[in-house]
Design a protein that fits this description.
heterotrimer, A alpha/beta, B alpha/beta, C alpha/beta, A: 8-stranded mixed beta sheet, 11 helices, B: alpha/beta, Rossmann fold, 8-stranded mixed beta sheet, 25 strands
Chain lengths: 371, 645, 214
């Protein structure tokens, strides 16, 4: 994996419009900050290598190296990544009542992880109007306050970095695939810092096909519902093809086509739908309202799920075969589109001496982009 | 007790040019002095104000130069002698009134002292006030040394009363801020009584109305006054000639350039070849006197600063006289003999004379100069100007820079004149993007704030000092609120006119003379105008940042944020650090990822140094002013602050 | 008329330093001492914005005859007092000549270019060598350190005036200094300044003897 510095990050990601505002570079140093969904570099930094660049999920992500570090083998290119088991899941009665969106699986798992001291803090993403508001909580009771769909790119990892600065060394992170790519890179100690300590004890990934630019959405909402506060957002499963915005007084149904321009360019080269670098990945369950898809990827994830089920924080059920097929197809589609786009832009496996967004064995690349 | 009223007639004192001017005003028996601070003029009013309790002179720092001129004019109308002082840029501000005043005339003596700043040593333009004398059609005097700076003021008051119009006495930085020997005269006892007489015939200059109308009549009268002044100039004691009867070159000069020219002639040993005509009365030119010298010499070098004012006036005169005295060859600015810009000095004149007389001149042995230049290159890195240690502006611009970066819409700051002009430079993180006249930041922001209809979505911030607010920001702010412009005005309220030495302004509880005065509340004024107002302490970085982010998000109307924190050099703060600062080099992250020398590489407060040996920052205890801000920006917690005992 | 003759007329002295080091005050005090002795003194200096962390120079011209230009012509300084070492180098490049006497306070003030790492500040031994090479005679005094021991670094400027008095280049002595300083400040402050003046004079005499003085 090649590590450059802040100047390259600025040039290749921020100025190139690829930044999705995940917050991986934020709060590591005095230079990168996030405000209203947008990451800014406050002052130039002259370092030739930096964690900001090393962690960023949009530049020099070496998938083979990362897969080797996380899963013990090079990147296979399989649609949903490496996993052990798949379930239908939802919050159990042990997790208490909460206004969970969908099945509440993530909230239930994080509550349990906090209460069982598997983690010392949970890095989550709340919402302040349409602006995502990441936070670190040590209290299981606060977890539901963060539960709701965002659909906007969030600087969640800024809260993780902040937690690290404050001394947390066993944090649980709930994040999107891009965010968990950054976390995975972070955990490989890319700058080979002698004093490195892995601050993360658990990662739960959220399925993601695209996100919306926060400022773009704010401007859009301001235009569609001037002066009104958006209380809730929801994307009903296909073939609805709409996004639903709820204000205090009304519900707006907006065709997805209209908001597609608000998808950040960085999302278009993302090959990961199911958060492949997580311990556990969670998504919606098509055709089964109130349930989630739960992919168990690691032993650590497996152990948490088992214990949570025993403690009745989680209800598990067998995952229907045909749903899995649909999921794989969707995930493979996203991979193919992402790599094709990256190839078009010249940002995958760049020539020697040039910098790339993604690196992967050319044979795997061939396989993933074949029709 | 100040020094300018001390000393008996005949005593010699070392006086700054501005002190000499102030003393001259006292010796002239002035009753009123008004001005607005501006380098290099400020010490004139300051010295008069400091002595006001003993001299019976009413002294004020007016809200701006136009008001100062009006205040002084009122005294003149009431039959008193009045002095009005400003830096060159101030004449631009006052010029509207001055044009009316000069057209209508004065009664008690009125002298306007503009102080120019050739080379812009403390200015953001290289302005020039002499041409105003021509525009206003009033007499212009220029002292050539410190003694004249004093004596000329008294003479100017007498002239003003003789002709019934105001008189300009122009100084420059190298007189105002230089010091020299002055022999004192007598300060008269004052028994001045003020009465504005207005019940006579409307055109009666002593009993009628004061105005420049009817224009045809008054303008002709104004020009008669000027002719009378020219006649008096022929015998003025300030025009001198030294040199041979028939010189090979006539050097005509005025002001500080007279001293440079005299020394240059001496250094080149040209005393018997070049004649030096030093003029103290430069507008209108004393025609007969100048003619007498032009007649005797075919070549003329004019030495002056800024625009070729003297050069052009002499040339016009020479052209008019040419049929009688023949054509002359001129060396000056327009032909490139002397530099067109920047201040003059003896070396420029030496250079010009050496070229005209075809002489070799070297200021020091070549080998020496070469060696010294190499040493400077190798070891005397330039010193860019910087905010003082402990200056609130550094913290203010830090926050403004950061919030505009976070805001991420290519926002920018419009500013004007003050220490905060340095916001345009490295020390202000290159945050200021427009800088013009006093108050212009607000007026320009008012305009930018209406361009949203053309797709402009950048965030707009204007900055102003507290003194500037009263001087020229108010009309711009009124305009902006009335027209629904959208921007944030930040007022750097550092409790005084800090740049020029803490002169009071209408927001403070004292006046120029140190007497209690009702302070005007900036926040209250802005609220009354209809702006949304908040106040923060720029040393509280977090609160200031949050306040600014909030106002930048408010895309409706004008927000005013008052950054309140006294100047580090203010009398109540200077030499009294608030915090004892400590830097733990073991904790300092230095160049490591996570800091990379934020405090020295980026923040650059002069109170911090980079310790190359230990690869860590360190506090320079001689320079640190103990403001505590660096402790709040240090990402490692290496810098700590403790309330000073 | 002057009480004592000058080594040359006018005698040209440059006092240089960085904004905030008390340059203007030093030149004013020295000028007043000499004016009281009957000399005609002219001082040229810059203040205002130019003072904010920038190089600051005062030009003193002492004459038995007349007022001189407030700017010394290039190459014509007879003596230079530097409150900051690299400023001495800068002044000598413009106003120095092989016959100049240099009194230098050794404490550096880093410019923001040095603080930020864009420029390097030269090693002290290097600066000293340059100044020796460029002067008829150069003295190096740890005036700021001595002033800090007195509790106020700003007194370094007065120490340098004291040091000048000990060179004998100009007719300045502690009585003259006391007479001037006591008119411009309260007695206790004036006494501190007189102490600083005497320490400066003693530092120069010790340097002449080849000793270092704490």
């Amino acid at each position: 994996m090649q590590v450059f510095g802040p100047s390259e990050l600025l040039e290749d990601v921020l100025n190139a419009g690829l930044c999705i505002g995940c917050g991986a570079c934020v709060n590591l140093c005095p230079y990168f900050r996030s405000y209203k969904g947008k990451t800014a570099m406050l002052f130039p930094c002259s370092r030739e290598t930096g964690r900001c660049h090393a962690f960023c999920p949009k530049t020099e992500v070496d998938l083979d190296a990362l897969s080797t570090a996380v899963c013990g083998s090079p990147y296979s290119g399989s649609p949903t990544g490496t996993y052990q088991q798949v379930f239908m899941a939802r919050a159990g009665e042990g997790a208490g009542n909460g206004d969970f969106q969908d099945g509440g699986t993530v909230s239930a798992l994080m509550k349990f992880a906090l209460e069982s001291n598997m983690i010392d803090g949970a890095v989550l993403t709340g919402r302040n109007g349409l602006v995502p508001a990441p936070g670190l909580t040590t209290s299981a009771r606060e977890v539901p306050a963060f539960a709701s769909s965002k659909y906007t790119a969030a600087p969640t990892l800024a809260a993780l970095n902040d937690g690290f600065n404050r001394g947390f060394r066993q944090m649980g992170v709930v994040g999107t695939p891009c965010q968990l790519t950054a976390v995975a890179q972070m955990r490989t100690n890319p700058l080979q810092d002698a004093n490195f300590a892995d601050p993360v004890a658990l990662t739960i990934g959220l399925f993601c096909t695209w996100a919306l630019d926060t400022r773009g959405l704010l401007a859009f909402a301001q235009k569609r519902a001037p002066g009104e506060q958006i209380r809730k957002m929801h994307v009903p499963p296909p073939p609805a093809g709409i996004i639903v915005l709820e204000t205090d007084t009304r519900t707006l149904e907006i065709p997805l086509e209209e908001i597609r321009p608000l998808v950040p360019a960085g999302c278009r080269i993302c090959p990961d739908m199911t958060a492949e670098w997580a311990d556990l990945s969670v998504g919606a369950m098509e055709g089964k309202a109130g349930w989630n898809t739960l992919i168990v990827r690691t032993a650590k994830g497996n152990s948490l799920v088992r214990k949570a089920a025993v403690a009745r924080y989680l209800e598990l059920a067998d995952f229907p075969r045909e749903n899995w097929k649909d999921l794989e197809t969707a995930a493979a589609d996203k991979k193919r589109r992402a790599f094709e786009k990256a190839r078009q832009d010249g940002t995958v496996n760049a020539e020697a001496g040039c910098r790339a967004a993604l690196r992967v064995d050319p044979r795997t690349l061939e396989k993933m982009t074949a029709d | 007790m100040s020094r300018i009223i001390q000393g008996a007639p005949g005593e010699h004192h070392l006086f700054m040019g501005n002190e000499a001017i102030a003393r001259g005003a006292l010796e002239a028996g002035i009753s009123v002095a008004a001005g607005y601070p501006g380098t290099p003029s400020s010490e004139i009013i300051e010295n008069l104000a400091a002595d006001a309790s003993e001299t019976d002179v009413y002294v004020e720092w007016s809200a701006n130069e136009k008001v100062a001129a009006e205040v002084a004019a009122a005294a003149s109308f009431a039959g008193l002698r009045a002095l009005c002082v400003m830096k060159q840029n101030g004449v631009n501000v006052a010029s509207d009134f001055l044009l009316h005043l000069a057209g209508g005339g004065t009664r008690g003596g009125m002298v306007l002292v503009p102080c120019d700043d050739p080379g812009a040593l403390s200015s953001i333009n290289e302005g020039e006030s002499r041409h105003f004398a021509r525009l206003l059609e009033v007499p212009l005097l220029e002292p050539g040394d410190f003694q004249e700076a004093k004596d000329m003021i008294k003479w100017a008051f007498e002239l003003s009363e003789q002709i019934g119009n105001m008189v300009m006495v122009r100084s420059v930085t190298r007189l105002s801020h230089a010091s020299g020997d002055v022999e004192l005269g007598k300060i008269p006892e004052s028994d001045a009584k003020a009465r504005f007489r207005h019940t006579g015939f409307i055109l009666d200059p002593e009993q009628g109305a004061m105005t420049s109308a009817p224009v045809g009549y008054k303008h002709a009268l104004q020009q008669e006054k000027l002719q009378k002044a020219e006649a008096l100039f022929e015998d003025a004691p300030f025009n001198t000639y030294t040199g041979p009867e028939n010189p090979e070159l006539l050097v005509i000069t005025s002001s500080a350039c007279h001293l440079y020219s005299r020394e240059a002639i001496g250094i080149l040993g040209l005393e018997n070849r070049a004649g030096l005509l030093k003029l103290g009365t430069t507008w209108p030119l004393p025609r007969q006197l100048v003619r007498a010298h032009l007649e005797k010499c075919g070549r003329v070098l004019v030495v002056e600063e800024v625009i070729p004012f003297l050069e052009e006036n002499i040339k016009v005169l020479a052209a008019e006289l040419a049929p009688e005295i023949g054509a002359k060859t001129f060396y000056a600015k327009r032909d490139g003999t002397l530099p067109a810009t920047g201040e003059m000095n003896p070396d420029h004149v030496i250079c010009a004379l050496a070229a005209i007389f075809n002489l070799e001149y070297r200021s020091a042995p070549e080998q020496y100069t070469e060696k010294a230049k190499l040493c400077v290159l190798a070891g005397a890195p330039g010193r860019d100007l910087t905010f003082c240690p402990g200056c609130p502006h550094r913290a203010s611009f830090w926050t403004l820079h950061n919030v505009l970066a976070l805001d991420n819409r290519e926002g920018f700051v419009c500013g004007d004149i003050g220490c905060y002009s340095m916001g345009m430079r490295e020390t202000g993180f290159y945050t200021l993007k427009t800088m013009h006249a006093m108050g212009s930041g607000t007026g320009i922001a008012s305009g930018f704030g209406k361009l949203d209809r053309f797709g402009m979505d950048q965030s707009i911030v204007a900055v102003s000092g507290d003194s500037t607010f009263f001087h020229a920001v108010l009309p711009g702010l009124v305009n902006a609120v009335h027209h629904g412009s959208n921007f944030t005005l930040v007022i750097f309220d550092n409790s005084g006119t800090a740049m020029t030495g803490f002169q009071p302004h209408p927001g403070l509880e004292v006046d120029a003379m140190g007497k209690p005065a009702p302070p005007l509340d900036i926040a209250g004024i802005c609220q009354a105008i209809g702006a949304k107002v908040s106040v923060c302490d720029p040393f509280d970085l977090e609160n200031t940042r949050d306040t600014m982010l909030e106002t930048l998000d408010d895309r409706q109307g004008v927000n005013v944020v008052i950054f309140r924190q006294s100047c580090a050099l203010s009398p109540e703060k200077k030499g009294k650090p608030r915090y004892e600062m400590h830097l733990d080099q073991k904790v300092c992250m230095g160049e490591n990822c996570g800091c990379n020398k934020l405090c020295t590489r980026v923040f650059k407060c002069p109170g911090l140094n980079w310790d190359e040996k230990n690869q860590a920052a360190r506090i320079d205890e001689v320079i640190c002013a103990g403001c505590g801000v660096c402790a709040d920006i240090c990402p490692a917690g290496a810098i700590t602050k403790k309330e000073a005992g | 008329m002057a009480a004592s003759t000058l080594p040359s007329d006018p005698f040209n002295l440059v006092i240089t330093g960085v904004g905030g080091q008390g340059n203007v005050m030093a030149s004013r005090v020295l000028g007043n001492i000499l004016t009281r002795k009957g000399f005609t003194v002219t001082i040229g200096e810059t203040f205002g914005a130019s003072q904010r962390g920038g190089s600051v120079m005062s030009h003193l011209r002492v004459s038995e005859e007349t007022t001189w230009s407030p700017q010394i012509p290039k190459g014509r300084a007879h003596a230079v007092i530097a409150l900051e070492p690299t400023e001495a180098v800068r002044v000598l490049a413009d106003y120095g000549n092989p016959g100049v006497y240099t009194l230098c306070n050794t404490r550096p003030v880093h410019s923001i270019a040095v603080i930020s790492g864009e420029s390097a500040y030269p090693e002290q031994h290097q600066v000293k060598q340059w100044l020796r090479d460029l002067s008829e005679r150069a003295w190096f005094l740890e005036a700021t350190n001595a002033a800090m021991e007195m509790g106020n670094a700003i007194l370094a400027n007065i120490m340098m005036i004291g040091a000048l008095s000990a060179t004998g280049l100009l007719p300045v002595d502690s009585q003259g200094f006391e007479a001037v300083i006591s008119r411009s400040m309260p007695a206790d402050k004036a006494a501190r300044n007189c102490e600083a003046f005497d320490i400066g004079a003693e530092m120069l005499r010790a340097a002449d003897r080849g000793q270092s003085v704490k």
